[in-house]
Amino acid sequence: MKCRQLTAEEGVMYKLILTSVALTAPIACNKLDRPTASSAATNVVSRDLVFSGVQFTPHDSHPLKVALIDRDLDARLFIADVGIASGKFTLTKEKALVDGHRYFLDYYADVNGNQSCDAPTTDHVWRIPIDTVTSNISITDTHKMNFHDSCSSFRDVYAGPTGDMTVLITGRLLLGDSVTDARGITPGQALVGANVFVEGFADQDTVTDSTGAFRLSITMPRDQALLATERRLIMWYTQPKPGKTSADWDLADARFGATKSVALSSNLNIGDQKLQYTKAVNFRVLSSVDQNGISTCWIHSKTLGSNLVIWSGTDGTYTVDYLPPGSYDLAVVCPGYQNATTTVTVGESNARSASDTAPDVILTPTP
Asked: What is the pTM of this model?
């Protein structure tokens, strides 16, 4: 089924649904059951939508766009420009929803300012599913790093949710051969409860089962530019110190990880993957004015999303805990300073609690 953006005339027809007027014309999709005078819903109930965001301060200077997708009609209903002030925004759309319908609320911050939605992590893109509507909907979302690549919702020609595709990645995670002091886990042993996700799709993660096996399902727009791009599969496992639970993880815990480049174009079995010790990365954030450390910064990984743990000291020293070998882009946001991006590189390690030191990040005060 090929779906598209509603034409102006069809938009008028959709509004008629919202006001409970019978239809005699198709709405959006050529394979959709077309309402007629005898089958049209004459008791349709329309509902209001209120969408708010908090803690979006890092995007105060970035344009924000919101799209509403009707999943049952395979139609984009609107795109709205929303202003962010002091980390907050609110969008109100009266009679935007219909009882019995399901929706996607997609939105993105135009980080690079090119007036186009670019796949994470260039722009920050999110999706909120709305299940079957039965009342007015009010949603408040808190800024987070688990992106969803739903840029197809903002294309000039909307292909509809049916343009999405799902790729299944399977495999098994084992402890690496060179790890010899892993608190009771022996080399080659299956890792149970290890986390697996693909960069840019941190919200679609999974964990390994009792045999170390995993099934990771990634749903994304059927966009040729995306399919031609390989992404890193991130695999890691945390083993707390004896007597601790996962809720008490800290820098003394044992972490193991690995990354693998995968093409998101077809189902893939990566077989057995062996995880090695990860490393922490230390770096300082300094003011360009006096070279003093800045201790109130917000830092996240554009690759790892919300899975990143940051430890900070009062002298402006930050520790990223713990990363598999590879390079990672970090966004550095400090109140009163211009935002910056830095790249840290992690080498391989055969020892627990190993660390690397990255160059200082120098920030310029905002005008």
From this structure: 0.53
